[in-house]
Amino acid sequence: MNDQLIHSAANGDTDKVLALLQKGFNINTTDHNGRTPVLAATYNNQVDTVKVLIQHGADINIRDNNLENVLLHAGASGYLEIVKLAISAGADTKLTNRFGGIAIIPASERGHVEVVRELLNHSDIHVNHINNLHWTALLEAVILGNGGEKHQEIVQLLVDHGADITIGDQDGVTPLQHAKKLGFYEIEQILKEAVPERNNS
Fold it and tell me: What residue range is the signal peptide (predicted)?
């Protein structure tokens, strides 16, 4: 029965979602993937449906079988409006995905500049969180990014918000060393300029 609610949410059929909720359907029911209605809507970037479900008390922190929840998936996918809704609803920024990372790490890797900016400016996200690979958002932006303008801007944002440029990967290789090795000159310059700021603080 509750699969109707999840299916309607995934399709962005907000009117049907509201009708089913009025009939007493469980707003936090899960399907075989462990997805709640609000998470099913998030996967398909159904902003209006996510908003309505949050307004009706949906638990946005529930993670599915893949350890994704509203903030984690929206952040990784670049769904800025849903990220904003999740932050406003008090999403737990400390919850991790299957790689042990928080929302800002995949967002940084994938070049989602505005998502990174939103997380840094409007949430209590931990900029120096280290995932299971021993990578921070800064390391991931450098190692898995393409060195282009979006990743340059993300590196600058992370540094401006206190990213620790001395944290290396599991082999101790720092973001600056990775940037040099990869030939990302602009990122290398951003990180070099950040060194004296860190030493003087």
Answer: none
